[in-house]
Specification:
Blueprint lengths: L4 H17 L10 H24 L1 H8 L19
Amino acid sequence: MRLNVRSLIGIIGLGTIIFFSSHHTAFAYIEPVSTSMILQLLAGAAIGIGVWAKVYWRKISSFFRQDSKRDGTPDKPADKINE
């Protein structure tokens, strides 16, 4: 019997679900180093999302704005911007 990729992934997925759904008591703890790494990961993700939002803020705000102009360009003509 030859298994294709889809059935092999299904068998592995089912085995993983069965393995992790079995109830075993784990006598473990989270080390301080692991906690620090998790906090750094969350802080880095939050800062990355903030920088991304700042870079694309004009496009994001123009998407939610009610006017018909949604391309993110300024409202003033180019020759009036420096005045």
